[in-house]
Amino acid sequence: MLKALTLSLGLAILAGSAIATDTEYKLQVDGMTCPFCVATSEKALKKINGVKDANADFESGVINVCTDGSVNFTDDQLKAMFLKKGFTYRSMTKTKTCSAGDFTKKNEDKAG
Amino acid sequence: MNKKNTCKLYIFYLLAFLPATALAAPITFNTALPVSKGEVLARQQFIVTNLSDRLGGMKRDVTVRAGVSVLGYGVTPKLAIFGVAPLVNIDREVGALSRNFTGLGDATLFARYEIYRNDTPGKTVRIAPFVGATLPTGRTGKTGDGSVDGFAGLIFTAASINWNFDSQVKYVANTRANGFARGDTLNADASLQYRLLPKTIAANTDAFLYGVLEANVTQLQRDRLGGVINPNSGGTQAFLSPGLQYATKRWIAETALKIPVVNNLHGTALEPDYSLVTSLRFNF
To answer: B3-283 maps to which CATH number?
Structure first.
C-alpha cells in the first residue's frame, strides 16, 4: 500500500514538473496580412523541436507559441527565421506556462 | 490581318496574365508580396479569351483557351523566380474558313526583387521591380510568337487584413522574328481586393473571401512586317475585371472576368470581347 502511494506521488510530482516546464511565448511579427502568411509562419515554428503548438492572431500580428520548455528562442534566431519567410520579427515576451491542451482550448474559447 | 499578325495578337492576350504569388494578390497581374525563401508556389490558370467582329459583312471570331502552369520559387527572402508554361488551343473563324491550333505556347521566365518593405502589425507595403523574357517555345505562327521578347516593370503593394491594393507598370519590348515585329506594349494595372467574409476575424479564422476589382490599361505600338508599319495594329485598350478570390492557409481559388471598356485599336485590328480567368494556387 505504502509502495503504491509512494509510486503515485512520485508520478504526480514528475507529471506536475513536466507541465510546469511548458512555456508560452508571444511573438510580435509584422507584415502578416492573410491566411497564407499566417500558415507559413505557424508551419516554420511548428518545425522546431519542442514547439507544441503555434497560433497567430491576424489583427495584432502576435503569434502564441506553446513549447515544452526545452526551447529557448533568441531574438536573432527569430529575426532570421521570419526574414526568410518574408515578414518582420519585432519582439517576444515569455508569458506563462502552458500545455498543448490548455493552449488549444484557450484559442477555441477565444474563437467562440 | 495576316496569319502571323493574328497569332501574335492572340498570344498577347494570353501573356497579359502574368502569375501572382500564392498570397492574396491580383488575379490578372502580379503582386510584390513575398515568396518565402526555399518555398515553392504553384498556380494553374485556365483562361478563355474571345475576340470577334464583323468586317465588311464577314464574321471574324477567335477563341483562345489556355491552361497556364506557373511555378514560383523563393531564392532569397527578396528574390523570387517564376516559370510560366501555357498550353494553348486556338479556334479561328474568318468567314467560311476555320482553323484550329493546339500545343505548347511561348514560355515565360522572370525574376522579381523586393526593394522596399515596411511591415506593421497586420499591414505591409512592398515595392518590387521585375524583369523577364518570353521564349519562342510555341509553334511559330500557330501557338507561339516566334520571338524572344523582354519585359520589365515595377509593382507596388499595400496590404492589410481587410484589403489589399496592388498596382503595376510593365513595358514589353517585342523583337523581330521571321520579318515580323509586334509593337511594344506598355501596361498599367491596378487591383483592389476587399475582404467580404468573414466580417470579423476570430482565432480560428483560416480563410478569407475577397471581392476583387481590377483595371488594366494597355498601350500597343504598331506592328512592323518587313520593316513596313501595319496600319491595322496598335492602339489603346482598357479593361475592368471584377472577380472573387477565396484564400485559405494552403490554397487559393479565384476567378475574374476581364471586360473591355475601351477598345481603341487602329484600323481593322480584331478587338477582344472578354477574357475569363480562373485559377488555383498552392503553397508547398
So the answer is: 2.40.160.40
